[in-house]
Amino acid sequence: MRMGCGFMRRSIQALLSCCFVAAFLLQSGSAALEDSQTSDEAAHLAAGYSYLVTGDYRMNPEHPPLSKLISAFPLLFSDASLPLDHPSWTQVNEWQFGGRFLYRNVLPPNVLLALGRAPVLIMGVLLLLLMYKWAGALYGGAAALLVLALAAFEPNLLAHSHYVTNDMALGLSYGYLK
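RESULT FIELD:
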């Protein structure tokens, strides 16, 4: 009988964990589809896509490339085009290049942003799961569930878990380094 109680407790914890992750995905995912572009998303997304397509890292060199590469990866499976013939490419004007990429592409800006934001949203979920696992290892299942619940509704995580920026990648890498 005792073993059944433990199984029931783990099942409830797994169900609640899934509900908290789903709530996070629903909140951040809907914001990813509804929010307009932030000031640097066009530069980050165009730079990441140019890295993948051309192998040239000239655009947006002040930020590490990994999160931009991850964000731009889904664009490889789309009809997105790079404005490599535009003077902003040769002049290395990342802001003009990014704006041209986002707003004068064969795909609408909301589609490009949604594709670029999807991997960031996945990084946000991975960060939640990392916090859950870490809290569970330190303090047990109840604490892990509490941490997951708090993180799923934490305004800063929700605000930054769907933009093509370095925030989620940095938070996730910092969590793994600890």
